[in-house]
Amino acid sequence: MNPHSTQKLGRTCESCHIDTRAVGLGRGSVKYINGDLKFIPALSSSPDITGLDHPLDAFVDIDGRPLVHTSRPGLRTFNREEIKRILYVGLCLECHGDFNDKVMKNWNPSNPPEPCVNMNYR
Ligand code: HEC
Ligand code: HEC
């Protein structure tokens, strides 16, 4: 999120729930396999020259391990459960696109809906 720019339009659901950069993982793609989310980074996961074991654009890994230090008290990266909850919503948005849709309207965070039969596993 960029606090230094404002505009009238709100952000789209997708801009947070599908964008792996928004949750701090960096660029890449998400796969839903056997009920769990896997992240495939677009950048090298162990860049040679840096000696790091994670991509340079990652703030956190899919297990919630923070990869950066933050500069303000209370500031932190998302934890594992938060990352997975946010990205899981993203799997549904293609067809259940906003809060007018009954799936989103009825979504209970303490008991999120199972993927439906109509969902394509890609
Ligand atoms: C600015 C980023 C952002 C935008 C835009 C956004 N969300 Fe979210 N959403 C979040 C975050 C952060 C959470 C909380 C995740 C948590 O607490 O674990 C969340 C939670 C949710 C949840 C509950 C998930 C769960 O199981 O806890 C649903 C459903 C959801 N959003 C749907 C939507 C829909 C539909 C839209 C568009 C109308 C939308 N969101 C737009 C960031 C966003
Ligand atoms: C490729 C399209 C598609 C995707 C992706 C998709 N759904 Fe669906 N879903 C549908 C269609 C079509 C229906 C039936 C029409 C309706 O009820 O809106 C449906 C129905 C449902 C229903 C039953 C709604 C009701 O009350 O009758 C639930 C619950 C649901 N989906 C959950 C999910 C969840 C959770 C995800 C993501 C993890 C998801 N779906 C992803 C297409 C999709």
Descriptive account of the structure:
This protein is 18% helix and 10% strand. With 122 residues, it is of the alpha+beta class. The chain has a domain at 13-91. Strands 1-2 form a two-stranded antiparallel sheet. The protein is globular. The two termini are 28 Å apart. The model has no long low-confidence stretch (mean pLDDT 91). One heme C binds at residues 91-92, 94-96, 102-103, 113, 115-116, 118-120.
Q: Please, what is the average pLDDT? A: 91
Give the H and E element order: HEEHH
Percent helix range: 10-25%
What is the alpha-carbon Rg in Å? 16 Å
The main pleated sheet reads as: 2 strands, antiparallel
The SS-based structural class is alpha+beta
Total count of strands: 2
Content of β-strand = 5-15%
Cofactors and ligands: heme C
**Strand sequence of the main sheet, in spatial order?**
1-2
Low-confidence stretches: none
Number of helices: 3
Q: What gross morphology would you assign?
A: globular
What is the distance, rounded to the nearest whole angstrom, between the alpha carbons of the first and last residues? 28 Å
